[in-house]
Amino acid sequence: MPQPPARTGPAARRRVLVVDDEPRIVRALVINLRARDYEVDTAADGATALRTAAAHRPDVVILDLGLPDMDGVDVLHELRRTSRVPVLVLSARHTSGEKVKALDAGADDYVTKPFGMDELLARLRAAVRRSEPVAAAEETVLVETGEFTVDLAAKRVNRGGRDIRLTPTEWHLLEVLVRSPGRLVGQKQLLQEVWGPSYGTETNYLRVYMAQLRRKLEADPSHPRHFITEPGMGYRFEP
């Protein structure tokens, strides 16, 4: 899907869509985000969130899962039909299964309530960084396999003659791996490079996203040829 033009100069302020039905949390987020020069839109339910995202094209979404009209995971699925915008889930649901479900639906990160504002903002900044395009002059590498091609400069993946849509986090994970062909990349290194320096033990993130990359790019995801798991250690990309 064509992406909106990059914002530059005075208009380069990032736009955040906050989706939550708790007024106290929304108010705190709006105050803190605007104090850091973000533009902020808010939505108290899923339908409003989807309309607002389509109309204003946010740079990042903060999404609660417990919305009054629809589950936040369903909102995620709808967003991912048309957009690669980074989505940071903010939820009171603490179980590993709930986190995996949200990540599998296309979330880029997951923060549980109650939360620390500084940590949330750091994760938001990391999510935005992962989605930023690389300047064309910085990278000209093209990685080719028998099944797909990765254009690191254009941030595009082509398989069988068609472009494959990846979320920003899926792309970042792919990028780290294909830049080190044949080399084992440790779990901690992957987590810190893709999600940020405060990560290191959230191996369930890696399992979910590697499964998604395999589904999208491998000929036989259950017997991967290119994205190899080294149990207990990390992952390796074989061209």
UniProtKB/TrEMBL annotation:
<feature type="domain" description="OmpR/PhoB-type">
    <location>
        <begin position="140"/>
        <end position="239"/>
    </location>
</feature>
<dbReference type="Pfam" id="PF00486">
    <property type="entry name" value="Trans_reg_C"/>
</dbReference>
<dbReference type="GO" id="GO:0042802">
    <property type="term" value="F:identical protein binding"/>
</dbReference>
<feature type="DNA-binding region" description="OmpR/PhoB-type">
    <location>
        <begin position="140"/>
        <end position="239"/>
    </location>
</feature>
<dbReference type="GO" id="GO:0000987">
    <property type="term" value="F:cis-regulatory region sequence-specific DNA binding"/>
</dbReference>
<keyword id="KW-0963">Cytoplasm</keyword>
<keyword id="KW-0805">Transcription regulation</keyword>
<keyword id="KW-0902">Two-component regulatory system</keyword>
<dbReference type="GO" id="GO:0032993">
    <property type="term" value="C:protein-DNA complex"/>
</dbReference>
<dbReference type="GO" id="GO:0000156">
    <property type="term" value="F:phosphorelay response regulator activity"/>
</dbReference>
<keyword id="KW-0597">Phosphoprotein</keyword>
<feature type="domain" description="Response regulatory">
    <location>
        <begin position="15"/>
        <end position="128"/>
    </location>
</feature>
<feature type="modified residue" description="4-aspartylphosphate">
    <location>
        <position position="64"/>
    </location>
</feature>
<protein>
    <recommendedName>
        <fullName>Transcriptional regulatory protein KdpE</fullName>
    </recommendedName>
</protein>
<dbReference type="InterPro" id="IPR036388">
    <property type="entry name" value="WH-like_DNA-bd_sf"/>
</dbReference>
<dbReference type="InterPro" id="IPR039420">
    <property type="entry name" value="WalR-like"/>
</dbReference>
<comment type="function">
    <text>Member of the two-component regulatory system KdpD/KdpE involved in the regulation of the kdp operon. Upon phosphorylation by KdpD, functions as a transcription regulator by direct binding to promoter regions of target genes to positively regulate their expression.</text>
</comment>
<keyword id="KW-0238">DNA-binding</keyword>
<dbReference type="Pfam" id="PF00072">
    <property type="entry name" value="Response_reg"/>
</dbReference>
<dbReference type="GO" id="GO:0045893">
    <property type="term" value="P:positive regulation of DNA-templated transcription"/>
</dbReference>
<dbReference type="InterPro" id="IPR001867">
    <property type="entry name" value="OmpR/PhoB-type_DNA-bd"/>
</dbReference>
<dbReference type="InterPro" id="IPR001789">
    <property type="entry name" value="Sig_transdc_resp-reg_receiver"/>
</dbReference>
<dbReference type="InterPro" id="IPR011006">
    <property type="entry name" value="CheY-like_superfamily"/>
</dbReference>
<dbReference type="GO" id="GO:0005829">
    <property type="term" value="C:cytosol"/>
</dbReference>
<keyword id="KW-0804">Transcription</keyword>
